[in-house]
Every structure is written in structure tokens, then in C-alpha cells.
């Protein structure tokens, strides 16, 4: 059976060139990057090369890149680091204020909810039916005690890209720190931390062909963060602990590959995504693409199949050799419908009937053609069994 993988927003395969770059640092090049002897200094050189590669992808300075264990750590460091440091300088009656959105990843939402328990006020901006925030809502949400705006670049479920350049201007004018979770955009669309006027940005390697367990946080020079981890003086004290040299090398190589192929990959994936969406709409009655009129990452399609349970369809498609998902992998098995889809106005039944297809660097035309044979068949079979589906 042919296996087709359309769940790249959950994770990607490690690129062969990335693996090749990493392999020496599991064996011959095993030095600790903090050691001053030759073994250590070769490891240090590899770490600094990777820092250059990640900085080039984001158009940042080298010293502004801090390696982490992934997107969740980077998001938490940015949010807690700014909020707790800034709140400490405010009076107890105004402990600080953070602005975010209702469609953020749980790494941001749960961090903000934890801040609320510590007395920090949080505003959760709504989104429209396409998944975009209203910039006037953002302006109205600002307060004298606002310390941070955290708005994701691209949504992990629907792919919608927020207007970060405009948000960056608002944050700069208000003298408020600006963070973005760019886990789903980095390596897929161009990200320039200077053009977007960002102070903090989070990325995760396994979303663009590096291994799991490695990520980075861009921290603009001069940004003041509360220290979250305590240990040695690694990475200028921002992130103590012995560096994961092999993982860092992999992240750097993946960043280099992404930077060099970004435009070509984006054009090809946009074409394949559009082919998939148009083919499904033509073949499957009562289907609809979510956020199809908004700016999106080139690889992401989220589609409603009315009258079905999404998880049942995911299982049926997997049995036919096609891997996809109902949304964020971090929420797999959740009883509640997707908070992202309900935030754009879907009733719970439609949110549960929606499937995310996310394409990747190695997705082919023939795989999309095969998917367009598999998906309509599976939907038809399940709808025949569905007590809630009535053809329109």
C-alpha cells in the first residue's frame, strides 16, 4: 500500500542533508561546546555556525539567537520572561498586562493562563471568520500597564498569517514588547525580524526538517527577560545547560536549506495545496475550505466535511494509506472541538468534522492525485453510516 503523509504541520521527517550534518556530533565530534580543549572548541565552532545559519533565516544578529528544546520552551521563555520581569517593576495594583489571541497554540495560551493566576491581566483578542485579528481591537486593548503583545505568525490548524508588520508598528509606537510564535511559518514563508519589528520570536526544528527537541528563541538586543532556568553561564545566561550540539547543528542545516529553497518550495506547495482543495471541493459535496480568502502558509488546507466525525475520517484515511489530522498534534484525543475553529465561528459539530491536510517538501503531484481518489471514497463510505448527514 502506498503511504501518503499529509501531516507536516505536526512534524516533518529529518532531511537527509540535516542527518548527514548531525551524525559526526554523535560520535567523533562528541566534545562539550563549553570545554576549552580541541574537542570542545570544534563543538563550539559547529554551534556558532548553526547560530549563523538560523540568524540568516530570520535576518537577525548572531547574538540574538538562543537555542532551546523547541517551540514550547521558546514561547514560555518569551512570555514568562517579559511578563515577570516587567511586572516586577510595576506596582502591585497594576501587575502588568499581556495581549494575545484566541487562536494561539497551547504553549502560548496555557502560559498566559498561568500568568493570570499570578495576577497578570491578559486580553485574548478575537478573530474574524477568516482567522485574522482586527488591528483596531489590538489598539483598543492597549493599556498603560501593557508589557507584551504575543500574536502567532501562522496558525498551526488553518495556516492563516497574521499582519505582523502592522502589529509590529503598533507595538513599537506603544513601546510594548512584541513576540510571535513563528513555529509554523519559519521555513515556509519569509520571516524578517527587523521588518516585522519583533522583539522575540520562537521556532521549532521539527517543523522544517530538523529533529525533534531543538528550537530557538530570537531575543532582540536590549530586551529584558526574567531568567527562568538556573545553572551555568551558557548562551549569555539566557539558557543555561550543556548545548545539544547535534540538534543545534541539525537546526542550523535545516535553516540553511529552508532559506535557499524558500521561494521555490512555497510556489510548488501552493500549487499542490490548491490542487488538493479544488479537487476535494469538486468531488465531495458539502465540503468547504476554512480561511480560503486569507493569507495562508502555502502548505496548509483545513477542510470541513459536513456530517462526519473528523477523528473517524482520519482513521479511515489512515487505513487507506493517507496520514492527516483533525488539528494540532498537541491536542490529539481532546474531547473538546478545536479552539481555533470555534474561534472563527464554527459550531462544534462543524469543528469536529474538519480535517487538516499539511503538505511538505517531499509531497508529489502523484501523491495529491492519489489523495484525491482516497478522500472522496472514504467520505462517501462514512457518510452512508452517519446518522447526522443529510445531503443538500
Q: Could you give the topology of this structure?
A:
Layout: E1 4-5, H1 16-22, H2 38-58, E2 65-68, H3 71-88, E3 97-101, H4 106-117, E4 121-125, H5 135-141, E5 146-150, H6 164-174, E6 177-181, E7 200-204, E8 215-219, H7 245-283, E9 287-289, E10 300-305, H8 310-319, E11 322-323, H9 339-343, H10 348-352, E12 354-358, H11 365-385
Parallel strand pairs: 1-11, 3-4, 3-5, 5-6, 6-7
Antiparallel strand pairs: 2-8, 7-8, 9-10, 10-12
Helix pairs in contact: 1-7, 2-7, 3-4, 7-11, 8-11
Describe the structure.
The chain is of the alpha/beta class. The chain folds into 2 domains: 4-11 and 262-385, Aspartate Aminotransferase, domain 1 (Alpha-Beta Complex); 16-257, Aspartate Aminotransferase, domain 2, CATH 3.40.640. It is 40% helix and 13% strand. It has a 7-stranded mixed beta sheet with strand order 2-8-7-6-5-3-4, sandwiched between helices. A 3-stranded antiparallel beta sheet has the order 9-10-12. Helix 3 (71-88) runs parallel beside helix 4 (106-117). The longest helix is centred in the C-terminal third of the chain and has 39 residues, at 245-283. The model has no long low-confidence stretch (mean pLDDT 94).
